[in-house]
Specification:
The protein is mostly beta strands. It is built from no helices and three strands. A three-stranded antiparallel beta sheet has the order 1-2-3, with no helix packed on it. Strand 2 and strand 3 form a beta hairpin. The N and C termini lie far apart (57 Å). 2% of the residues are buried. The mean pLDDT is 77.
């Protein structure tokens, strides 16, 4: 039985294109724990301390 897509599918972990295992977050992307396949993803990083915009109080 196939489950139809819904609004929560956007947050799901991708499946490995090589073996079908669910991939996990690693530094720089997703990696399969089954076969080791790596899919790079350009993550959006938070600014380092000191690079942030000043708040209301300066």
């Amino acid at each position: 039985m196939t489950i139809p897509p819904d609004e929560f599918d956007v947050g799901e972990q991708p499946n490995c294109p090589m073996c079908g295992t669910v991939m996990h977050d690693v530094d720089g992307g997703y990696q399969c724990r089954g076969c080791g396949f790596f899919h790079p993803v350009a993550w959006v990083e938070r600014p380092a301390a000191g690079d942030e915009l000043p708040g209301l109080n300066g």
